[in-house]
Amino acid sequence: MDECLNILIIEDSEDDAKLVVRELLNNDIQLNSQRIQTVNSLHTQLENSTWDVIIADYCVPGLEAPIALETVQQSQLDIPFIVVSGAIGEQVAVEMIKAGAHDYLMKDNLTRLPEAVRREVREAQIRKDRRQAEVILKRQQVAIEAVIDGIAILLNDIYLYANPAYLNLFGYEHSGELLGKSWDSLYSVEEATRFRHEIFPVLEQEQAWQGETIARRKDGSTFVQGVSLSLAENETLIVVCRDISELKQAQPHIAHNALHDPLTNLPNRALLLERLDLAIKKAQRYEDYRYAVLFLDLDRFKVINDSLGHLIGDKLLIGIAQRLKIHLRNTDMVARLGGDEFVILLEESSSEETVIEIVNRIIKECQTPFDFNKQKIFSSVSIGIVLETENYLQAEELLRDADIAMYQAKKDENHAYKIFNKAMYIKAFNRLTLETDLRKALEQGEFVLHYQPIFDLFDNQLMGFEALVRWQHPIHGLISPTQFVPIAEETGLIIPLDGWVIRQACQQVNYWEKKFPRSLSLKVSINLSAKDFRKPSLIQEIDILLTEKKLEGALITIEITESMLMDNLEKTIDVLNQLKSRNIQISIDDFGTGYSSLSYLNRLPIDNLKIDRSFVNQMQADKRDYQIVNTITALSRQLGLVTIAEGIETPRQLSLLKQLDCQLGQGYFFSEPLPADEIENRILYNTF
Ligand code: C2E
Ligand code: MG
Ligand code: MG
Virtual CA dihedral for 161, 163, 169, 173, nearest 10 degrees? Predict the structure, then answer.
C-alpha cells in the first residue's frame, strides 16, 4: 500500500498503541496515527478529520469497543472498524462482528493486523466506488425517464424496459402493458418481415442500425418512426426512437421552399443554376440541342418601389412573373434571381428568330400597364440575351454574360434587348479593371492637376484658372477625365478624388499668391460632381480646408452642371447659399446642354454661366448656335451674371463672342490646360 493511511487508535495504554503502530510500520504501511480514549474526543476526530481505519481496544474505560462502534455507525461514516483486545471470549468477538465491526484480533497476536488493515481499506474503497456509481446510475435513470425520445431495452427480443416517452409514443399507459411482450408486437406483419430481412442482418453485422420504419401504436394506428438500434452484450438491444411523421409531411414543402422564391413562387437562383448546368451538359452531349438565356431587369423599378411603396412593388413583381410564364413552354424556365431581375431559360430554341420573337412578345406584354386598385402602373423591361451558348462550361458565366448584355440594353434608349457578343465582355472587363486601377491610383497618388487660364476677353487680363484633373497612368500615360470621371462617379470614388482636387488646387493658388504677390485676385475654378454636391459633409469639409490653410473663400469658384441643379432644387439652393456666405463663387458649367428651363435661374444664388464649348465651336458655321450664345449672354446680362465662354480656339470665335458681349473666356486660343510649373513659366512670369 503506497498511500499514507490515517489511523485512529482508541486505546488507554500508550504502549499498546505503539505496538499496533510498530506492527503496521514494520509491514510497510505508511501511516499517521492519533490515539484517543474518550467519547468526546472520538466525536471531535470523526467530525474534523478523515480516517481510513479505526483500531479500537475492546476495554477502554468509558469508551469500550461497542460504544465506540455505535458512535462511528451513528456518524454514517463508512470507516473500517477493527477491534484489538486482550483475552476476551469468542462470544464477545462474534457479537462485535455481528454489530458491524470489520475484524477482531488478539493483542498478543498482531501478525494478522497489517493484512486486515490492507483488506479493509481496499474494501471500503470498493464500497465507496459502488456508492458513487449508484448515484450516477440513478441520475442517468432520471434523465432517461425525462428525455423526449423514446428509449427501450429488449433482452432476447422481449421488452425489458421502456421510458415514459416510449410508452407514450406507442399509446401505452404504463410499462406493465408493454414489458414482457415481443419486439414485433409494435409492427405490422409486413414491417416485421422487413426487420427480419433488411434491418436485422445489418444490425448483426454492424452492431447498430439507423433509419425509418412504420411503427404501430397500441390502438393499431401507425406512424413513421425515426429509429436507432444498438446491440449490447448478451442479446441486449437498445432502441431510441421518435415520431417523424410531421417532418416527413413537411419535407416536400421544405424542399420546394429551398428552391423557390417566396414572393413569386418562381424557381430561385439555386434551381436556375441547376437547370443551366443541365442545359450545359446536354449541349455537350447532343449536337442539335440548343438553348438560350434571357436576363430581364425591370426599368425604373427602384423608383416605383420607393415612390409607391413596397406593396405595389411586390404586386408588380408578382404580375410580371405571371406574364412571363404565359409566354413560355413547359420545357422553358423562368426564375427570379432577386430584386427586379428575372432569368429565362429557353430550351430547344431552334433559331435566333424564334428567340427574338419570344423576346419581343415579352417586351410588349410587360409594357401593358398594370392596374392595382385602380392605379395604373407602367413598366418596361430590358433584356440581355445569350444565344451562342454552345461553348459555355459554367452556369455562372452564362448569367454573367446575359447580365452584361442586359446592361447594354439598359443604356440604349432605342432597344429594349441586346444580344451578347464578346466585345461587350471585353468592354465590361475593361471597365472593371479600370475601376480597380482607379482605386489604386488614388492610393498611390497618380492624379495630377492641370490648370487652364481664364481671361477677360476685352482687356486680356488673367482672371484665374480652371483646375482639370488628369490621371498619370504608369502604363497608359496621361488619361483624360472624360474617360474616368464617369466611372469614378458611378463607383463613388469621385468623392475622395474631388476632395484631393480641392485641396491641391487651393494649395497651388495660395502658393502662387505668395510667389507672385500681384496675382492676389486670381481665382481657381473647381468642378464638382452631383455626388460631391449631395454629400452632407461638403460644407463642413470646405470650412476645415479654409481654416487649416488660412484661405479666403473668395479664392474659389465651384463649377456645377445644369443637371445637378435640378435634382432637388430646394436642397441645391440651400447648399449654394451656404457656399455664397463663405464668399465662394458659383459657375453653371456646360450651360445650354441640359434640358432644364431657364426660368429657375433667377432663383439660384449663382455668379457665372459657362457657355459650353460645343456652341462656341459651331458659332461660325451654324446660325442656330450663334443664336443660342446670343440668348445665353443676353439672359446672363439680365440676371446680372458673368458669362464665360469655353473652348475658344480661333480669333474669329473670340471676336464673335466679344460682339455678343461675353466677358470672360478660356480655350486653346489662349492656352491649353497646363501643369503647374508650365503655368508659372509661360503665364505667371510673363504677366506679373
Ligand atoms: P469641363 O468642366 O467643361 O472642362 C472643360 C473641358 O474643355 C476640359 O476638358 C478642357 O481641357 C477642354 N477644353 C478647354 N479648352 C478647349 C478648347 O479650346 N478646345 C477643346 N476642344 N477643348 C477645350 P477635360 O480636361 O478633358 O475635362 C473634361 C470634363 O471632365 C470637364 O469638363 C469636367 O466636367 C470633368 N472634370 C475635369 N476635372 C474634374 C474634376 O476635378 N472633378 C470633376 N468632378 N470633374 C472634372
Ligand atoms: Mg468645368
Ligand atoms: Mg464645361
Answer: 80
Cα 101 to Cα 104: distance, rounded to the nearest angstrom: 8
Instruction: From the CA of 561, give the closest atom in ligand 1.
Output: 34
pLDDT tens for residues 346-391? 987 668 999 999 999 999 999 999 998 888 888 899 999 999 988 8
Which cell is 634 given?
Answer: 443676353
Query: For position 676, what pLDDT does the model report?
Result: 97
Q: Assess contact for 283 and 291: CB atoms under 8 A.
A: yes
Q: How far apart (Å, rounded) are the C-alpha atoms in residues 279 and 270?
A: 14
> What is the rounded CA–CA span in Å between residue 264 and residue 262?
6
Is the Cβ atom of 592 under 6 angstroms away from ligand 1?
no
Q: Could you give the CA distance from residue 670 to residue 450 in angstroms, rounded to a whole number? A: 15
Q: Is 574 in contact with 539 (CB distance < 8 Å)?
A: no
Hey, what domains does the chain have and what are their CATH numbers?
5-131 (3.40.50.2300), 149-249 (3.30.450.20), 263-424 (3.30.70.270), 445-687 (3.20.20.450)
Backbone angle region of 449, left / alpha / beta, with phi > 0 → left and psi within -120 to 50 → alpha: beta
As a whole number of angstroms, the distance between CA 246 and CA 251 comes to: 9
DSSP 377-420: E---EEEEEE---TT---HHHHHHHHHHHHHHHHH-SS-SEEE-
Look at strands 462-473 and 674-675 and give their pairing. Answer: unpaired
Question: pTM for the whole thing?
Answer: 0.53
The pairing of beta strand 556-561 with beta strand 585-591: parallel
Q: Give residues whose Cβ lies within 5 Å of ion ligand 2.
A: 527, 559, 589
Q: Which residue's CA lies nearest to atom 17 of ligand 1?
A: 647
φ, ψ (nearest 5 deg) of residue 140: -60, -40
pLDDT given for residue 595 in this prediction: 54
Residue (of 166, 159, 130, 122) closest to 145 by Cα position: 166
Extract the C-alpha cell encoding 592: 445650354
Residue 69 makes CB contacts below 8 A (sequence gap 6+) with 56, 81, 83, 96, 99, 100, 101
